[in-house]
């Protein structure tokens, strides 16, 4: 491939050349990322939050049958290629066993699954762009180890097959009018989320207090603030 590139025999070979050179043995592991405007966080980070962003599902095959795999995001892995012109982002997931514990259909819109066992331990990886975000809610009707899967259409995404032509026209109009408000959430790229995520630093439940400090104390107070935030058990 290198000889072909030098001779100019093969055109538009940047991607192929990167694949031919292989991966950099160093990988980056992250706690979350944003895919097309949707935030995904791993289960460890999700455990500290009051919201849920670790549920994933993906379409696949099992025993020559089309099924939907449901699971939890474990890690976000960034792979770089040697010439730095190409990269790939993978999701390492834990998949709930749907072979021994069949999904239980509650009605037309909801599915309840057993989350007590895992499968595909040796095949946990998917591309970040393949993942569909889902939410898991405790099944209060069917009981222990069962959770209801909820698929949510995000505010800037919708399935056109669910709407009539008139509704589609209205959605298109609303999208045009409110596009500026949604720009910050729309992205065709995958954005890595760093481990440190500072929450709101303003308290509204107490009166204001003015503190006078000298300049050389500012750096120390800032370090203490970050340290306290990192030790918090829950994130907002």
Plain-language structure description:
β4 (55-62) and β5 (65-81) form a beta hairpin. 20% of the residues lie in helices and 33% in strands. The model is unreliable at 162-188 and 220-232 (pLDDT under 50). It has one domain. The strands form two sheets. Strands 1, 4, 5, 6, 7, 8, 9, 10, 11 and 12 form a ten-stranded antiparallel β-sheet that branches. The chain has a three-stranded antiparallel β-sheet with strand order 3-2-13. With 236 residues, the protein is of the alpha+beta class. The chain has helices spanning 2-7, 14-21, 43-46, 165-177, 179-182, 218-230; strands at residues 23-30, 32-35, 38-41, 55-62, 65-81, 87-96, 104-105, 111-114, 118-119, 125-127, 132-138, 146-151, 190-193.
Topology:
Layout (H helix, E strand, L loop, with lengths): L1 H6 L6 H8 L1 E8 L1 E4 L2 E4 L1 H4 L8 E8 L2 E17 L5 E10 L7 E2 L5 E4 L3 E2 L5 E3 L4 E7 L7 E6 L13 H13 L1 H4 L7 E4 L24 H13 L6
Antiparallel strand pairs: 1-5, 2-3, 2-13, 4-5, 4-11, 5-6, 6-9, 6-10, 7-8, 8-12, 11-12
InterPro entries: DUF4216
Protein name: DUF4216 domain-containing protein
Which structural class is indicated by helix and strand composition?
A: alpha+beta
Strand content: 25-35%
Distance between the termini: 50 Å
Mean pLDDT: 74
What are the segments in which pLDDT stays under 50 over at least 5 consecutive residues? 162-188, 220-232
Number of domains: 1
Question: How many E strands?
Answer: 13
Shape: flat
**SS summary, helix count:** 6
Rounded to an integer in angstroms, the radius of gyration calculated over CA atoms is 23 Å
- Taken in chain order, the helices and strands follow as HHEEEHEEEEEEEEEHHEH
**Share of helical residues:** 10-25%
Largest sheet: 10 strands, antiparallel
Protein name: DUF4216 domain-containing protein
Domain DUF4216: 79-145
């Amino acid at each position: 491939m290198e000889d072909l590139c030098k001779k100019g025999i093969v055109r538009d070979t940047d991607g192929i050349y990167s694949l031919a050179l292989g991966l950099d043995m160093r990988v980056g592991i992250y706690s979350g990322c944003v895919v097309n405007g949707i935030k995904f966080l791993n289960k460890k980070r999700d455990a500290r939050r009051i919201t849920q962003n670790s549920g994933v599902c993906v379409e696949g095959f099992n025993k020559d049958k089309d099924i939907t795999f449901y699971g939890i995001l474990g890690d976000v892995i960034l792979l770089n290629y040697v010439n730095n012109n190409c990269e790939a982002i993978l999701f390492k997931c834990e998949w709930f066993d749907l072979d021994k514990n069949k999904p239980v259909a509650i009605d037309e819109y909801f599915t309840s699954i057993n989350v007590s066992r895992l499968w595909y331990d040796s095949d946990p990886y998917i591309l970040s762009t393949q993942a569909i975000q889902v939410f898991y809610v405790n099944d209060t009707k069917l009981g222990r180890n069962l959770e209801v899967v909820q698929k949510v259409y995000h505010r800037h995404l919708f399935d056109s097959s669910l709407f009539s032509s008139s509704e589609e026209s209205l959605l298109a109009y609303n999208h045009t009018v409110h596009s500026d408000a949604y720009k910050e959430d729309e992205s065709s790229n995958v954005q890595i989320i760093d481990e440190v995520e500072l929450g709101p630093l303003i308290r509204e439940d107490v009166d204001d207090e003015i503190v006078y400090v000298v300049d050389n104390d500012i750096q120390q107070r800032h370090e203490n603030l970050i340290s306290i935030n990192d030790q918090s058990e829950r994130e907002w």
